[in-house]
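Tutorial, part two.
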Amino acid sequence: MAHKYVLKLTGEERAELEGIAKGTRGRQSIAAWKVQRARALLKCDQGEHGPGWPDHRVAAAVEATERSIQNWRKQAVLEGPLSVLQRKERSRPPTPRKLDGEGEAKLVQLACSAPPEGHSRWTLRLLAARLVELEVVDSISYETVRRTLKKRTEAVAEEDVVHSATAERAVCGADGAGVAGLLPPLRSASAGGVHGRAGGAVGQLVTAAGTHEPWPYQADRLRVCASRDVHGVDVCRTAGLLA
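Running the prediction step on this input gives:
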């Protein structure tokens, strides 16, 4: 089947594409997507030194779809083969963020404050309306509010997990069965204050009778599970930091 867009590479174009198809330039690696497209164009070449493979064979060789091969070949004919190795610029600029750092801090403070009169708690729509009322933003959707609060909560969760001072943790074996209670303070200094780190931890078991016994298990064979009086990370913890 004859193609409308027939690719015929010059010697210079083939040399340039062959250099890219090798995958490296000196000690620097070339992006995989560029290597793939360069290989495809070399195999599509119907010039004097090109193999002129059909699209389905080229697609199978470079692990791409026939539609992609057709689009690359068309672009190479109309705009030049090297244009296929360049990312297209965005037709529209990226949408600016609705809330900058200061705006996010204000949102967190609102979420942690007392709800408006007549409401038992803040809702996403109430928070969005309040931000507009306070002239933090001109307009904002409740979905943007939800994503922002979710992002802040996840960011804090990666940094810190808060447990109450009186929390007791259950120690579970590899089979998931409970072993006994582990007092929170009894962790090695090498654990760095992080719960669950097994850096040579030494502790004591609290038996059902309330007595303390030496720790008889290897730390790397156990996992620590919150059993009672444990608080998860609350987005309100960030209010004081971001104010």
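Residues 161-169, 179-203, 217-235, 237-243 have pLDDT under 50 and may be disordered. In part three we will examine how such features are distributed along the chain.
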